[in-house]
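Re: [ENG-882] Designed sequences occasionally contain unexpected residues at chain ends

Forwarding the minimal case from QA. Structure tokens:
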């Protein structure tokens, strides 16, 4: 998990404690995008090499 994800989780916790459900869901959506779209360059290169070898 990268630093951005950790910060988003912390903000979600604080918003939940404060009763701000709408903001919590917005942060959760940002968290999901960040977590699933974050790919290291090394991972991408390995995927690309494997994909090219398969074809």
């Amino acid at each position: 998990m990268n630093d951005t994800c950790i910060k988003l989780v912390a903000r979600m916790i604080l918003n939940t404690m404060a009763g701000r459900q709408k903001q919590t869901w917005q942060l959760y959506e940002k968290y999901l995008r960040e977590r699933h779209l974050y790919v290291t360059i090394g991972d991408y290169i390995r995927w690309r090499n494997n994909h090219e070898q398969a074809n």
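QA comment: On inspection the terminal residues look reasonable. The two ends are 32 Å apart (CA to CA). Proposing we downgrade this to a documentation issue.
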